[in-house]
# Entry
Amino acid sequence: MPLQIGNLTIDSPVILAPMSGVTDYPFRSIVKKLGASLLVSEMIASRAMIMQTRQSLQKAKVDALTAVQLAGCEPDVMAEAAKLNEDMGAKIIDINFGCPVKKL
# Structure
């Protein structure tokens, strides 16, 4: 049975969870080939995203149905980062509210 998130239909129940330092673009590509229908990026610091650092752009690289996970503490910066990711093709913006990783 498909999963409906807003106007998006997720056909497969296999969803790649966001894992900092793990779910990079090459890993997401492999998981997609193995049947995942929703891919979630690793966590991206919102400020780094709006500065468009090489590392943040690589993390945000979108292919097919991708959700991007953003972290941050400044609402205006997070909003700008969300809009940038949407413009780059992200279908879902996932806001991380409680990651235990100390360094963001």
Remarks:
- The chain has a mean pLDDT of 85.
- The beta strands are 3-5, 8-10, 15-16, 38-40, 44-45, 66-71, 92-95.
